[in-house]
Design goal:
heterodimer; A: 361 residues; mainly alpha; ABC transporter involved in vitamin B12 uptake, BtuC; two-stranded antiparallel ribbon; 13 helices; B: 301 residues; two-stranded antiparallel sheet; 12 helices
């Protein structure tokens, strides 16, 4: 009965969300069916589309896994959007300016991206460690600083801006990465082709899943998250472990930026992060902070992002994708929270009844 | 008007929408709920104000529509994070994505005609040199602040409700033990925030600009949060923060026209940097509400 009602609740709330979207599309004078077809064509029809979905999913997964590490430790880092941008900037600087053989520079750029993201998150971690400044607020504020930092760098020719031909209008974006410093792709265009970034993401996801479940580090981290006081009593170095988790989640976000840079965009420009950092957080939430579950959720979000590019053919504004994303997140969160609230209320009611009975007898 | 007057009056005009929303955000944060969705409230308020004004043909009714939009976002946020105990940051983030998507989608699908509320010049005072045009000649809803700010202060610091609000923000467990319904108080504080942030967004749209364009608040909600932090969770400081951040925005717009060059990226990120520095410097003396951002679940300490 209980399981049945859970499923029913999920079906009802997801159905409700989709109904709202369909109603919105129809009311604005578009065809809901055509929209669905376009989303499908953009994300799942044919090898190229599936490859695009997977490419979009890889950075989302990385961000989500990083955020899961942090959440498991009971700390919220919501600055992934900025950490991703700083990571990508560091990666781009290394890839463009570091001499050496292509593959070595590529690996160095990816590591640099992770280090950049880690450093940016490290500011939040450090301020927390040093002055007890709230991690959430700090990492959030740093997102907007990071955006401007990126904008600054791509608007300065001595930093990352492209080397334009004299007389040409300078666009705020970097040069393209050299061909041998890009992540190799498997397969070729009309068929299924995916960047190798997704394998990096999957390997790290598996590693984190195992470490969280079986490792000593993972055990301490979860202990810290479940009860920081008990963890401290048991000898967990809370400040170090917590700061480490924040830094590590920043490294994942930075690496996501590196993968986007070397795997699909090949250059960095204003607005590079493109909400991947925010959406990665939502992936982690929908996966209920389980790394393995984050894989299908990230794929699903990747499919939405990929399909969004196809919406233009139907004339539906592409903003529809963010509406769908947000509504689905709310719909996915609602049943669990609703049942918990219900169970809690029922528990209180029984307790009250028992107490009243005790008074009466 | 000379240059200085021009910059000063544009600084005041740019900080007015912030001030409305910041007064609301101040109430919400004192109740212990950190709602990033203030951005969504402002953006929704701006959109609904323009749409409402376009439908009814009256900019003043548009303001009411904007308030309604802010209240709606606040209601959804309150239900999810203080009835169902979903993480408040995630709810706020989702709402921001949702409202940004919705308003952009609808603005592209249906065009609204522009409406703007009237300018009110306070007689005599507006004729005072320098100060007059800066302070006493604005779109009329701006003068609502004269009533709203003392009211918010009185509500939070002198009323029973405000005491309960502050208790919910400082020590929800003790508040709960003394019979305060913490989550209800937080939901109510959110509604106050929604009302004022919706009004702030509406003021931006039908007051200052007169039309809606995609993502027109452009992160002002986050600046509002930065202002509350910068002000060390005091109403006075919060409003000072709004004025300061309005001034940096005015400088960013005015300096190139006046022939000065100052790094625009630095000016855009100034509110966030200043808030960070304020948190760092005053970390020991002016701390935020102790339970800020932590959900209250009875029985869990």
């Amino acid at each position: 009965m209980n399981r049945f009602s859970t499923l029913g609740l999920y079906a009802a709330s997801l159905g409700g969300a989709l109904l709202i979207v369909a109603g919105l599309v129809t009311a604005s004078g578009y065809s809901a069916w055509d929209t669905l077809v376009a989303l499908y064509q953009g994300s799942l029809q044919g090898g190229a589309s599936i490859g695009l979905t997977i490419d979009e999913a890889a950075p989302l997964l990385l961000v989500a896994v990083g955020s899961i590490i942090c959440t498991q430790a009971g700390i919220f880092n919501i600055g992934q959007e900025g950490q991703l941008a700083v990571g990508a900037m560091t990666g781009a600087a290394i890839a463009l300016y570091c001499p050496g053989p292509g593959p070595a520079v590529l690996i160095l750029a990816l590591l640099g991206a992770a280090a950049g993201g880690a450093a940016w998150a490290g500011i939040a971690g450090l301020l927390y460690y040093w002055r007890r400044v709230d991690v959430v607020i700090c990492s959030l504020l740093l997102v907007f600083v990071a955006m401007q930092l990126l904008s600054f760098a791509v608007n300065r020719s001595y930093l990352l801006q492209e080397n334009a031909v004299p007389g040409q209008v300078m666009i705020p974006e970097s040069d393209l990465l050299p061909l041998n410093e890009r992540l190799p792709r498997l397969g070729s265009y009309p068929g299924l082709n995916v960047g190798t970034g997704v394998f990096v993401a999957l390997a790290l996801t598996a590693l984190v899943a195992l470490a969280l479940r079986y490792g000593r580090w993972g055990f301490r981290l979860r202990m810290l998250g479940l009860n920081p006081i008990a963890a401290r009593r048991a000898g967990v170095r809370a400040a170090l472990l917590g700061t480490g988790a924040v830094v590590l989640s920043g490294a994942f976000a930075g690496l996501a930026g590196g993968v986007m840079l070397t795997g699909s965009s090949y250059r960095i420009q204003d607005g590079f992060a493109d909400n991947v950092g925010w959406e990665g957080l939502l992936v982690a939430l929908m996966a209920r902070n389980r790394p393995v579950l984050a894989v299908p959720v990230a794929l699903f979000f990747g499919a939405l992002r990929a399909g969004g590019g196809f919406l233009a053919s139907t004339g539906v504004p592409r903003y529809l994708v963010s509406i769908v994303t947000a509504l689905l997140v709310l719909a996915a969160v609602f049943p669990v929270a609703f049942q918990e609230a219900r169970r809690f209320q029922r528990g209180r009611a029984t307790a009250r009844a028992a107490a009243l009975e005790g008074v009466a007898s | 008007m000379n240059d200085l007057e021009l910059i000063a009056s544009s600084a005041v005009r740019l900080s007015l929408p912030l001030a409305f929303a910041a007064a609301g955000e101040y109430v919400a944060e004192r109740a212990g709920t950190l709602n990033i969705s203030v951005e969504a409230m402002m953006l929704g308020g701006a959109f609904c104000a323009v749409t409402g004004a376009s439908i009814t043909g009256s900019a003043s009714l548009g303001l009411l529509a904007g308030i309604a939009a802010g209240l709606l976002v606040a209601f959804v946020h309150g239900t999810f994070s203080h009835r169902l105990a979903v993480n408040t940051y995630v709810v706020g983030l989702t709402l921001n994505v949702l409202v940004l998507g919705l308003t952009s989608f609808l603005a592209e699908s249906a065009k609204a005609t522009g409406h703007q509320v009237d300018v009110l010049r306070i007689p005599l005072l507006a004729d005072v040199p320098t100060l007059g045009p800066v302070l006493f000649a604005h779109r009329w809803p701006a003068f609502l602040l004269v009533g709203i700010v003392p009211l918010v202060w009185w509500l939070v610091h002198r009323s029973r409700w405000g005491l309960e609000i502050r208790a919910s923000g400082e020590s929800p467990q003790s508040a709960d033990v003394s019979g305060i319904d913490v989550n209800r108080r937080r939901r109510q504080a959110l509604l106050v925030c929604g009302l004022l942030a919706g009004l702030g967004g509406a003021y931006l749209a039908v007051g200052e600009v007169g039309s809606f364009n995609q993502d027109m608040t452009a992160g002002r909600g986050y600046i509002v949060i930065a202002a509350v932090i910068f002000g060390g969770w005091t109403l006075r400081g919060t409003l000072a923060g709004c004025l300061l951040f309005g001034a940096t925005d005015a400088l960013r717009l005015a300096l190139p026209a006046l022939g000065y060059a100052l790094n625009p990226q630095l000016l855009i990120s100034a509110p966030y940097l200043l808030a960070l520095i304020a948190m760092l410097v005053f970390a020991k003396s002016r701390q935020g509400p102790a339970a800020l951002g932590t959900p209250f679940i009875r029985g869990i300490t």
